[in-house]
Each structure stands twice: as C-alpha cells, then as structure tokens.
Design brief:
Arc Repressor Mutant, subunit A, D-Maltodextrin-Binding Protein, domain 2, 3-stranded antiparallel β-sheet, 5-stranded mixed β-sheet
Length: 325
C-alpha cells in the first residue's frame, strides 16, 4: 500500500470501496451512498493510488474486483461494521466472527463440571473466543468483576453489592461417597454412625468450618475430621482407599465414582442443596459478546439440569415399579 500517496486517509473511501465491491456497479454504489457517479470514480482513483492496484476492472457493465480487492474486502467490511457499532453506541455480535477472550472465575469443582462442555459449545459456534478460567478468591470477587479481571464468575450464593448482577443456574444436591465394601454400604448409616465416622473435607482455607459443618453447628452436632485437603479429586482418592467418608456434590461424585471405585449414598441427614449462581458486573450488560456467552452458560446448565431431573424421575419410577411387583 502506498502510504505516501495520501497520508491522511479518508475513511469514506472505504465505504465507497465496500459499496462497489458489494454491488459490482459504480452507478448502484453511487445511488446507495447518495453520491454522484463521478464522485465514486474519483474515490476509486484515490484508493488505487493508495493500494497501487486497480482494485476493480470493467467487464461490460460490471466492475469486477481484482484479487487484491477480494483479499481486503472482508477486512474492510469488518472494520466498517465495528466503526458503525461505535458510532451508534450499539454492539452487534457475530459468534462465528468473534475474536476475543472471556475470563471466568471458577472454583475447581465447577471448572471440572462446566468448563469442558462450555468449551465444546464455543468451539462449535464461536471458535475465535479464547476461554480462560481462574480460581475465585471470594473476598475479592466484586473487585475482580468491577476491574474486568473476570468477565463472569460462577460460584455458590454469595453476598454481593448492587453493581454485581447474578442469576441462579442450578441447585446441586449433596451425597455421601465411600469406598466399595465400606460398612455404610451394608446397612444404612444413622446420623450418629455418620458423625462417628472419620471424615475428609475439602476447603481452600487452612481452618474454619466448611458448608456441612455450618449445618451441623445449627443442630449443635460435631463430627470427626481426620483429613482436610484442597481438592475433591485428592479427597475422592483417599476415600477409595480407606474408610474415610466424604460429602460432595452429586454430579461431580457421579463422574468420579466409576474410575475411583466409589459408592454414592444419600446423606443420613437433610442437607440443603448448593445454589450455583452466575455473576457479572453491570458494566458488561451492554457487551453483546459477554451477554451471548452468559446466555450459552444459562442454556447449557438448564439443559443439564433438565436431563438430570429426567434421569432421577426415571430411576424413581423404576424403583416404584419394582416395588409393585
């Protein structure tokens, strides 16, 4: 491209180029842009000097683009589209053409459960989106969303300010994981049996109660915690090789139960389901790309929740049918 021919480039020249390339006619391009045909011809002459290429050659009544014109046409179209969005104050998001990064705050369990499926969705419909996952520090969640370090976050229900928007994605039931052949598999454990067992718990902090302990404290109950670790996978491996017991979300447990020879049991006492929410800052509500990704996450989790509900209903119906025989 000849930079010295016109150092102060006129962006309107590229609008004319775009119109001629799309219509194949100087007359039609002039009509679309409310210009005279000589003005369109003059603009093409200036562009030919800048690109040192004829750009279009006449073939009868049509203006046929050169290979150079065909090469730059998609870039010109994308640039004009982006400029129109800026000037109009609106954003149009085309997933297949998106080229951006989305950073999501996730804890280990949700990363394991959600990230592979979400990547599959994006790879199919928006392959140019780069997906980054980062561990959440709950004390800094609002700050990370406000500063743009996180575009989105997914976690349990947390106290947040009015600038943080959120939406319930699903409720996750808890279950009890033990090794195959554990005494709890031979008879249903009572609450006292469960409290007397040796427990492994998962927590990111070095001390303090975990979720189940908060529920126990409200009933003035205590249990024996033999091991406290950082990751559920490590905890599941210990459970598979000992008499330790572990309380964890059922979906994650079901994915690991076969490979680690775990047996899943209903909790001996009622435990509230975990509410998993999607969080974002109000500043991103007009970011069409982030809105689109949010909608995909919601659709993905709702479909998964509906599938789980169908399986649970089918299993319940099968048990009832066997009982009637």
């Amino acid at each position: 491209m000849n930079d010295s021919a016109n150092p102060r480039r006129d962006l309107n020249l590229f609008r004319i180029f775009h119109a001629v390339h799309g219509s194949g006619s100087l007359t039609q391009a002039a009509a679309q842009l409310h210009l005279t045909q000589p003005a369109v011809s003059n603009a093409l002459s200036r562009l030919r000097l800048q690109f040192d290429d004829p750009l279009f050659v006449r073939d009868g009544r049509r203006m046929v683009p050169t290979p150079r014109a065909n090469l730059i046409a998609p870039q010109v179209a994308a640039a004009l589209d982006a400029l129109d969005q800026v000037l109009s104050g609106e954003q149009r998001f085309v997933p297949a053409r998106a080229d951006r990064r989305c950073t999501i705050g996730l804890r280990e369990l949700l990363e394991f459960s959600l990230l592979p499926d979400l990547y599959g969705e994006l790879q199919r419909d928006a392959p140019g989106i780069k997906l980054h996952s980062s561990r959440i520090d709950r004390r800094r969640l609002e700050r990370m969303l406000a500063s743009g370090v996180f575009d989105l976050a997914i976690d349990v229900r947390l106290p947040v300010g009015e600038d943080i928007r959120h939406r319930l994605l699903f409720r996750e039931e808890l279950c009890l994981a033990v090794r195959a052949g554990h005494p709890f598999t031979r008879r249903k454990p009572s609450v006292d049996d469960w409290l007397a067992a040796r427990h492994v718990v998962v927590a990111s902090k070095p001390g303090g109660p975990v979720l189940e302990d908060l529920a126990l404290e409200r009933r003035d109950l205590r249990r024996q915690i033999a091991v406290r670790c950082q990751h559920y996978y490590a905890a599941c491996r210990m459970v598979g090789a000992s008499d330790l017991v572990l309380m964890l979300p059922r979906h994650y447990a079901s994915q690991l139960s076969q490979s680690l020879a775990l047996q899943l049991l209903p909790p001996p006492m009622h435990t509230p389901a975990l509410e998993i929410l999607l969080y974002w800052h109000r500043n991103t509500e007009r970011d069409a790309g982030i809105v689109w990704i949010r909608e995909r996450i919601v659709a993905l989790t709702q479909a998964r929740y509906a599938e789980r509900a169908d399986r649970k209903h089918a299993a319940t119906a099968a048990v009832a049918k066997r009982a009637r025989r």
